[in-house]
Design a protein that fits this description.
Layout (H helix, E strand, L loop, with lengths): L8 E5 L4 H12 L3 E6 L5 H10 L4 E5 L5 H14 L2 E6 L14 H27 L4 E6 L12 H20 L5 E6 L8 H9 L2 H4 L5 H13 L4 E2 L3 H12 L2 H15 L1 H4 L1
Parallel strand pairs: 1-2, 1-4, 2-3, 4-5, 5-6, 6-7
Helix pairs in contact: 1-2, 1-8, 3-4, 4-5
Bound molecules: NADP nicotinamide-adenine-dinucleotide phosphate.
Length: about 270
């Protein structure tokens, strides 16, 4: 008799709030089982409950992704228990701060979550993804990844890493059934600190502003269409073109001035 195969799971990092929570709910709406990852005591259990109510299975794993040993333990736990056909590397952190004024802990944290956690978790889960009939990796980048800018020097660079990593891995896996995609959100009012920063940016903050619900929905659609890059909405598509094609002598001062407004208290 043929054994029933366990329905595979989608892993979402940073799923307790913001865009990650919207990814979890969007997957649940599509009856896709989820493994939700977030920091301890941030209410990830409540998100899982909503996913279960929507008719999918959902399990939680609380950990701090800034630690490599935690990432290895998470990968091991998942690989021993669950088949995984979707990995969404969403957990990320940003902020606006002059590099010389930033604490070393802030800079290190940003690099660990945005770069190290994304890369190492993908590395740990890839053998699992390769075993599935078809599998998808979605890396959350940012429109800010397309240009360097003052006061977000490390953030923009960290997201640019995601772009290059995504494209290289996609090419490497092109003969497999694992598809790698990056999404480049523009501004989203996901929490108070980000909302305050978006307000301070003035017009620039309003260009391409979308709800995280819309970004999650469009991203999952694009992911299943096996897109390489997902840029949502015409304003963000135009921003991307401008960030790529406007010469840097003109682009960098304009962008950096707008970003500096976010940081008025600290920089001016
Ligand atoms: N909001 C925007 O305007 C914007 C624009 C472009 C790109 N993005 C990108 O979109 C993604 C989601 O951003 P968001 O706005 O939704 O941010 P958010 O509301 O701050 O959510 C970030 C998520 O990452 C998790 N996280 C942070 N540090 C972690 C750690 N050390 N270990 C485990 N999880 C950790 C958080 O978990 P806890 O809840 O447990 O803390 C939270 O669920 C990020 O990659 C961000 O760079 C955001």
């Amino acid at each position: 008799m043929k054994e029933d195969k366990i329905k595979p799971y989608a892993v979402v990092t940073g799923a307790s709030k913001g865009l990650g929570k919207c990814f979890a709910l969007e997957l649940a709406k599509r009856k896709i089982n989820t493994i939700l990852v977030a920091l301890p005591d941030e209410g990830i259990g409540k998100v899982a409950e909503v996913c279960i109510e929507a008719g999918s299975e959902s399990v939680c794993y609380e950990t701090d992704l800034t630690r490599v040993d935690n990432i290895i333990a998470l990968g091991k736990w998942i690989n021993e228990k669950y088949p995984v056909n979707i990995l969404i590397n969403n957990a990320g952190t940003g902020g606006t701060a002059g590099f010389s004024e930033s604490k070393i802990e802030y800079v290190n944290n940003l690099i660990q979550i945005n770069i190290t956690a994304t890369t190492l978790l993908t590395h740990q889960l890839l053998p699992n993804l390769l075993q599935q009939d078809e599998a998808y990796i979605l890396n959350v980048s940012s429109i800010a990844s397309f240009s360097p800018m003052a006061n977000k020097a490390v953030y923009a660079a960290s997201k640019n890493f995601i772009n290059i990593f995504t494209s290289g891995l996609r090419e490497e896996l092109k003969k497999t059934r694992v598809f790698v995609t990056a999404v480049y959100p523009g501004p989203m009012k996901t929490n108070k600190s980000i909302t305050d920063r978006i307000k301070k940016q003035g017009l620039l903050g309003k260009i391409g502003l979308l709800t995280p619900e819309k970004v999650a929905e469009e991203s999952i659609r694009g992911l299943f269409q096996k897109k390489h890059r997902i840029v949502i909405g015409v304003p963000n598509k135009i921003s991307r073109m401008l960030l790529i094609h406007v010469p840097s002598w003109l682009r960098l001062p304009i962008l950096s001035k707008a970003v500096k407004r976010e940081n008025q208290l600290k920089v001016e």
